[in-house]
Design goal:
The protein has 4 helices and 5 strands; from the N terminus they run ββαβαβαβα. With about 130 residues, it is of the alpha/beta class. It has a 5-stranded mixed β-sheet.
């Protein structure tokens, strides 16, 4: 199965230093290198937060988890974070397994994520 990747900057959004990455298909050993190549220039830029919208992701392997972990590490070095929204049940199950890892942020939808980001930004402004 292939992987469709769409990356767009959140212009005019509450968190304008963020990008959303929409993934559709299968994120596995065959498709992970393409995602890694497409994320590299974004991660080397001024982006602080990356939102992975996984509504159309059907499968993820350890290669995909490695890409997420590497992105998360890079973002944390820039005081940002990776967030994941709209997971299918099978993807949610994988994330439930890794949820016990500290620092992984998983949200039900953009509204929950927006509430979190607003609180985070408010705490930094105080």
């Amino acid at each position: 199965m292939s992987l469709e990747i769409q990356i767009h900057k959140n212009i005019g959004a509450q968190n304008s230093d963020a990008v959303t990455v929409n993934l559709a298909g299968s994120l596995d050993t065959a498709t992970a290198p393409d995602l890694e190549r497409q994320l590299a220039p974004v991660l080397s830029g001024s982006v602080k937060d990356m939102i992975f919208d996984l509504a159309q992701l059907k499968f993820i392997s350890s290669a995909g988890l490695r890409i997420f972990a590497a992105a998360r590490k890079t973002l944390r070095e820039h005081h940002g974070q990776a967030s994941f929204v709209h997971m299918q049940p099978q993807i949610q199950e994988v994330f439930e397994i890794i949820r016990s890892l500290p620092g992984v942020a998983v949200f039900q939808d953009e509204a929950e994520l927006d509430q979190y980001l607003a609180a985070r930004q408010h705490s930094h402004a105080s």
